[in-house]
Design brief:
Number of strands of chain B: 17
CATH architecture of chain A: 3-Layer(aba) Sandwich
CATH class of the largest domain in chain B: Mainly Alpha
CATH architecture of the largest domain in chain B: Orthogonal Bundle
Strand order of the largest sheet of chain A: 2-1-3-5-4
Shape of chain B: globular
Distance between the termini of chain B: 32 Å
CATH topology of the largest domain in chain B: Cytochrome-c3 Hydrogenase, chain B
Strand content of chain A: 15-25%
Distance between the termini of chain A: 44 Å
Order of helices and strands of chain A: EHEEEHEHHH
CATH superfamily of chain A: HybD-like
Number of strands of chain A: 5
Largest interface: A-B, 27 and 40 residues
Strand content of chain B: 15-25%
Number of helices of chain A: 5
Structural class of chain B: alpha+beta
Number of helices of chain B: 14
Oligomer: heterodimer
Largest sheet of chain A: 5 strands, mixed
Helix content of chain A: 25-40%
Chain lengths: 173, 498
Amino acid sequence: MAKPVLLLACGNLSRGDDALGPLLLEFVEAHCDLSEIELLTDFQLQIEHALDLENRGLVLFVDASVSCAGPFELTELEPALDSSYTTHAMSPAAVMAVYRSIKKQPPPPCFLLGIKGESFELGEGLSAKAAENLQQACRFALSLLSHTDVAVWRQQADSRHPLASYGHSRENR
Amino acid sequence: MYEHLETAENSENLKRVVVDPVSRVEGHGKVTLLLDENNQVKQARLHIVEFRGFERFIQGRPYWELPVLVQRLCGICPVSHHLAAAKAIDQLVGVDPENLTPSAAKLRRLLHFGQVLQSHALHFFHLSSPDLLFGFESDIGKRNIIAVLNAYPDIGLQGVKLRKYGQEVIRMVAGKRIHGTGAIPGGMNKALSQAERDYLLEDVDQMIKWAEDSVALIKKVHCSSLPYYDEFATIRSNYLGLIQPNGALELYHGGIRAKNDRGETLLDHFDYCRYNEAIHEEVRSWSYMKFPYLLSLDKENGWYRVGPLARVNNCDFIDTPLAEAARVEFKAHGGEAMVHSTLAFHWARLIELLHCAESIKVLLHDPDILGHDLVTQGEKRFEGIGVIEAPRGTLFHHYQVDENDIVTKANLIVSTTSNNMAMNESVRQVAAEYLSGRELTEPLLNNLEVAIRAYDPCLSCATHAVGKMPLQLELVDAEGRLVDKLVKHNDGTIDRHG
């Protein structure tokens, strides 16, 4: 029986800031009640991950991002055709589109937690800036995952400063 | 053949057309064509633009970290690197392949069949079927897995589920889909439980049926467009891969067999621990990727192809019945000792997919697969070499360690590197046959990518040897004139020309 919430982290622990997704997953594994949450990690997304979306109430993709405006960003996703269809590494939106094609129904609500990274070389550790961003993202994820109401997640995704509700940003002011 | 297109005369006066990046290819590749004013192709090369220091990544680490660490070399075939490293590390702990326990050896084979099955399924159904089902020059908006799922829903779904099944085999044997510690020095870390075995058995017959259907599909696709499919990007080459002692197709362990384009044997049952005596790697200034060749020939004639086409060409038979029947049909179609069609890579790949599905079933019914005697111990050695047939071809891992078990030297020859010269030859063939004298369009450029994609290259795996690679950097202005040029030599010195 699938757990209602899926956290699917992408990245490679040995490619610098590409490790952000798996490291957040490790934090959640150590600090969260996992009775309702399934954790999965992979180097990159592929077509078969569409099958991991089955019977979920909420899905949180976690990945390093070079385009985040802040330390991290929560975005609600829609199924989409994009160029990642033609590569070995698909985007979360493309995985959702594969789900829709296979199942002939809309995918569950899916969100992307992007964490700002800047360096992705093989053999590198996490950059100092990415490590800071990870700390903030981990605190946010703990709070977010304590809710299983999609309305709360949408509220956070719509907020320009999601941390404002969770205290950490206030520490930095 | 088409070597005259590798380097054009007076290239500074030519128009540059770049296909970058090569989509549906792992890593970053770049095809550069230099055209004259009449759009005639004067130069064609496949470049590697990403540079990954594999050896540097491995050297300085304790050897026991490597089975996990090397999985991070590549997001596409982590299990292949995991098993090649494990075979090399077996030797470091004094265990030769024939001394693994039966259960450990069979669990490793099961893991490998799962990896090859999921990789081949991804390549055919996701990356190649859009081209093959809709046509190489069809609307780019159509050439993707979603269009396949919409137009051929059964085929698309089978691809997704075959891929998923292979991943489940990996998860059951290694404990996780990725970062698993299935193989450890001298054996395996985890036994397969009866419940896990039964779970995999539930779907295996369906997987065999779908794999069989996929072979019928590719045969139909190939044979319905003759002679095009036999001639597109086709080159005559040598072929190299592992082989069983009885001449059967082998993916996990065996000696090296190499044949020439006429099917004559160049190497047979050659001990892969002596690979340095048979294979050398040539460095060329314009590519990060090396060019391996057989020493028994020479640089010009010794290059070879690896992967499904090489393996199915080289073997005397396949030891699972459905795949063997498919092999016989495949060879009969070729009409000569070796099948040289580059697009026949797809056909051979699906024959192997079927072989993997059949072999998984055989292993799941073998009582040894549930055994708990999983580790063999031996006396420490200072050098280990592991070779397997990865989905894309022969993969070499070679390590030396010091008295503190730290890796002091590592050398990897990845499958895509072995196919480097062949991919360049196919690019040149396509450029010469299909692009010269025509206005360039996206579908035409896609023909080049189709040729490269047939090899299922993993370009991010194929570049290595930090500090050892001569590198040429050219700066060309808007008029096409060379204004500056730096050449970095093997010894690290840099010369400026221009």
